[in-house]
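protien #1 (seq + structre)
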Amino acid sequence: MGAIAGKRVLVTGGAGFLGRAIVGQLEALDPAAIFVPRSAEYDLRERASIERMLDDARPELVVHAAAVVGGIGANAEHPGEFFYDNAIMGIQLVEACRVHAVPKLVTVGTICSYPKFTPVPFTEDHLWDGYPEETNAPYGLAKKMVMVQQQAYHQQYGMNAVFVMPANLYGPGDNFDPASAHVIPDLIRKFVAAHEAGAPYVELWGTGSPSRDFLYVDDAAEGVVLAADRYDDPAPVNLGTGVELTIRELAELIGSAVGYEGRLRWDSSKPDGQPRRAVDAHLAKLRFGFEARTSFEEGLGATVAWYLRERPF
């Protein structure tokens, strides 16, 4: 039996995209209970709500997956909100977990914390080599400060706090809202609409040259749960595939997946974001046995099928 069996587990953001997948994988490990707080009842930006949540759940493990996130456009429009909400949630939660003597905390960070020009593939020892890409910096730095806090609490109080950094997530159930979607759901929605309308072209942001490492949501959830079960170290750990895919290649794959045969028109006046992203996940494999198992073709097919079935936007 693993370390999670028989334990009371609290998952912030457990009703969200990644959180739902984490909860599903935790259930297979036979915990005593899984507590999923809802924002209408527990506002994690308020210390009193966090205290009440911990009193109600009495967790032996906390997985902090709640976050205010979005694509390049949302990051550019709401930098203050993204910084404040993510920083205040994390900082107050870590302190409350210390006060309540929670035995273990796992925080889901982001590879947006890496410097803008990090050599590919990203390794954890490059995390402090420069400033993050400007459009993602408020969000990435807010998460990074929570990591610093956890390491300080480990040093001073012996707190068992783990920090994992997933690559760009995608999968069924993703956020397809045009105002805040990340690149894969945004492109799926655009290409499906263009295909059904018979549009001669699809206009896309940037130049298409940046690259990303896309991690299927179920694989990411498995990595988080493996870290919760097997990893007890404050050193941050990447979760990713190591496969680097350009946005242009991504657009062509999505167009093909939905049957669109028109042209791509790139609007270079729009930001590209970080030039390159792909992570080295060797440490995660070495320390707790994580390895992404879903090929991009398989994951993309499942995501497109879900969108065509559900049509959330």
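ok now protien #2
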Amino acid sequence: MPTPVIEFSLLDRLRSAHHWVVFTGAGVSAESGIPTFRDKQTGLWERFAAHELATPEAFHRDPALVWGWYEWRRALVLRAQPNPAHVAIAQLATLVPQLTLITQNVDDLHERAGSVNVLHLHGELMRARCERCRQHFPYPAEMPAIPEGGARIEPPVCTQCGARIRPGVVWFGETLPEREWLTARTAANQCDALLCIGTSSVVQPAASLTRLAIAHGAITVQINPNVTDIDDEVTCSLRGRAGEIVPELIEQLRAMI
């Protein structure tokens, strides 16, 4: 798929924006080799859909199965590297007056690329916690060896109250973290420009952020290889891979600033 031409008029409007929001989804991390929830499961997890394992009920029913799945996912993230889209987004923060980075992804690739103060709406895979007292659980420095096909692993217990440690992600049926969600909504309501990158724009309530920006007149740019529900609503939709389009967009903006 050829990289789409970025119109000068769009670049000129973006150049004048003061507060930027960058909103990223699973498509950005997928380009670093991290499976999305839509991808077919393999190994031990082959007979499960991802959404069947990502619930409080699944963890209570079979903690070792769910903890093992998240440890397998964490190992994938630790082996993955930030891609050019992650790096370009971190660079953008140095070029504009204000940038708020919001992600639906639970990995730490944005941080490893150099971004700071990332708002993780769906939690963080690297920040486990006690399911009862919410005490933070520090992962060991070394990742345990996990068979390629995955393994059932009993979750550790909290040193404070003895309850199970759970992954620090937001499961289906749980509410988004209040501080992050309030900050994200405020940014979407106040920004001049919003880049929506690699998200299908269907998972609520996070998907509503782009429409909040549209409603108050912000410039909205969608970057996605696939058609989404907001194609006809955004200011511009650039069809293609984030790792190709985002660096090109940032490079052209850099030349104008």
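The first helix runs from residue 8 to 15.
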